[in-house]
Design a protein that fits this description.
Shape: globular
Strand content: 35-45%
Number of strands: 9
Order of helices and strands: EEEEEEEEE
Distance between the termini: 6 Å
Structural class: mainly beta
């Protein structure tokens, strides 16, 4: 079900962490100027938030890196690199007239 979760004006430096009803983990929203990504804001290695991690927005290789131990997570699939043992949840996101919607 598509749910409105934020407005673009709420973002700071293209990032915003939101709480979504029914989800245990906060959701990190990332706005690249063209696209919105939404992933669970938690490293599956040690539960560190991903929200302050460096981004790689190279087309086809969009990732965020955990600042604690360096695991990377795909913004499109959630797929993880070591030391993270499993992927993070990724949410379908869309932007309509300044409103961010997630399919949760």
């Amino acid at each position: 079900m598509w749910t409105p979760v934020a407005k673009l004006e709420d973002f700071q430096n293209g990032r915003l962490v939101v709480r979504v009803e029914g989800e245990k983990t906060p959701v990190l929203l990332l706005y690249t100027g063209e696209e919105v990504f939404a992933i669970a804001d938690v490293c599956t290695h040690d539960k560190n938030p991903l929200s302050d991690g460096p981004l790689d927005l190279t087309p086809g290789a969009e990732t965020i890196q955990c600042t604690r131990h360096g695991a990377r997570f795909s913004l499109r699939t959630g797929k993880a690199t070591l030391p993270a043992p499993r992927p993070v949840k990724v949410y379908p996101a869309r932007l309509e007239e300044g409103q961010v919607w997630l399919d949760v």
